[in-house]
Amino acid sequence: MKQINLKSFLVAVMLSFAVSFTPNIWAASPVEVEIVALDHWPIRRALEQTLEMLKTFGDKVTVQQIDADTKAGKARLKASGMKGHIPVVIFVDGEFKHTLEGQEVIFENFPVASESPMKLDGKWSAGDVRAVIEAKLGEN
């Protein structure tokens, strides 16, 4: 019968104990969502469905909302190359353009069919945002 080295055994037990109480640093990072939007009632109303959907991901997604009229909001839009009156942009892991089922989807302006007062409906929906996040999380 092979004899176990007591020192090696104790090191193995201590490492096992330490690993069991250490956060898993290899766990997937949360998907980062930034919503840069004008803080006006039609936009807040148009984003309600998207914001509710984002809550369903829990800690798998971090959400940051930035008022597009603030210095930070203007800087974020400028950094992404956007100009002009843009009521809403949603960045998922830093990007607002994504590919879904071979088609480009751009998370800019109001969601589709949101009845925006200025006819600035985009061609994206909360479901599109969900699909991009699920793909990033490997859940689709």
What does the model show?
This protein is 36% helix and 19% strand. It is of the alpha+beta class and 140 residues long. The strands form two sheets. Strands 2-1-3 form a three-stranded mixed sheet, with helices on both faces. The longest helix is centred in the N-terminal third of the chain and has 15 residues, at 6-20. The chain is globular. The termini are far apart.
Task: Itemize the secondary structure elements and their pairings.
Elements: H1 6-20, E1 31-37, H2 41-55, E2 61-67, H3 71-79, E3 88-92, E4 97-100, E5 103-106, H4 126-137
Keywords:
single chain; 140 residues; alpha+beta; three-stranded mixed β-sheet; two-stranded antiparallel sheet; 5 strands; 19% strand
> What percentage of the residues does DSSP assign to strands (E)?
15-25%
Number of strands: 5
- What coarse outline follows from CA principal-axis ratios? globular
How far do the termini sit from each other?
50 Å
Query: Helix content range of the residues, please?
Result: 25-40%
Order of helices and strands: HEHEHEEEH
Secondary-structure-derived class:
alpha+beta
* Poorly predicted runs: 18-26
- Mean pLDDT, nearest integer? 83
Helix tally? Answer: 4
Rg calculated over all Cα atoms: 22 Å
In this structure, how is the largest beta sheet organized? 3 strands, mixed
Strand order of the largest sheet: 2-1-3
Task: Describe what is shown at a glance.
By secondary structure, the chain is α+β, with helices and mostly antiparallel strands. It has helices at 6-20, 41-55, 71-79, 126-137, and strands spanning 31-37, 61-67, 88-92, 97-100, 103-106.
